[in-house]
Design goal:
Layout lengths: L2 E8 L1 E3 L7 E2 L2 E2 L5 E3 L1 H15 L3 E10 L3 H11 L3 E6 L8 H15 L3 E5 L10 H9 L2 E12 L2 E8 L2 E8 L2 E5 L11 H7 L4 E4 L32 H10 L5
Parallel strand pairs: 1-6, 1-8, 6-7, 7-13, 8-12, 9-12
Antiparallel strand pairs: 2-5, 3-4, 9-10, 10-11
Length: 251
């Protein structure tokens, strides 16, 4: 079986190498951004499936402000065939359930047999969107995948669990969320970056897809955790117990 389409949602986040700063109760976003690392892995896996002739087309999807197009261009340069941008006002906080509803709306239009997305975004670490999407679509799911195989009309996902590895098999359509060990994403080459500029990108507003993104949760304030003080050396177990009891107050 050859899949007609794979849909890959990608998110623009603060680059993983940047130290996040908090100013005025908000995160300073005037820093370098890049594609969420788990989503890079999802794009790579989708492109590999296409290269193996297991899929005909890879569609990248991003939900965010105008700068999200940069992330979509990166996905196109990695090998995605076309892109869909759900344009929301810059700085709008779109919650995981709303993201899942928007992805579902795009999936209803594009009719993919497989959706591959990162298991979480490194900015909020919610790890909810893939599971919510599976619930909304009524599709089977393989979460935290570190190995993915398509054979005929079956999808096999190997995932890490507390006791070792778990392998599950399901049929399409399906949702897969990617773990770090699934693959190593390729670098976008200059020729492919140039080609990506000519690839098709559709733009929708949330209202075009019939999804209300009005936030039901408001972030009041963001603060950095208190700085940890240096450790202390002790000469004996008795001194350690005394400090844990009378200074640290943990005993």
């Amino acid at each position: 079986m050859t899949l007609n389409r794979i849909l890959v949602p990608v998110k623009r986040v603060i680059d993983y190498a940047v130290k996040v700063r908090v100013t005025g109760g908000k995160i300073d976003t005037n820093v370098k951004h890049s594609m969420n690392p788990f989503d890079e892995i999802a794009v790579e896996e989708a492109v590999r499936l296409k290269e193996k002739k297991a899929a005909k087309e890879v569609i990248a999807l991003s939900i965010g402000g105008a700068k999200s197009t940069e992330t979509l261009r990166t996905a196109l340069a990695m090998g995605a065939d076309r892109a869909v941008h759900v344009d929301v006002p810059e700085g709008t906080e779109v919650l995981p359930l709303q993201v899942a509803k928007l992805i579902k709306a795009v999936a209803d239009k594009e009719k993919p047999e497989l959706v591959i997305l990162g298991k979480q975004a490194i900015d909020d670490d919610s790890s909810q969107t893939g599971q919510m999407l599976a619930g909304l679509l009524g599709w089977s799911q393989g979460t935290f995948a570190n190995k993915l195989e398509v054979a005929g009309d079956k999808l096999t996902v190997t995932r890490e669990v507390d006791g070792g590895l778990e392998t599950i098999s399901t049929r399409f359509p399906a949702i897969v969320t990617t773990d770090l060990r699934l693959n190593e994403p390729r670098y976008a080459t200059l020729p492919n970056i140039m080609k990506a500029k000519k690839k098709k990108m559709e733009v929708f507003k949330p209202q075009d897809l019939g999804v209300d993104i009005t936030a039901s949760i408001e972030t009041i304030n963001i603060a950095e955790p208190p700085k940890r003080s240096g450790g202390k050396k002790v000469e004996s177990v008795d001194e350690l117990i005394d400090k844990l009891k009378n200074e640290a107050k943990v005993l």
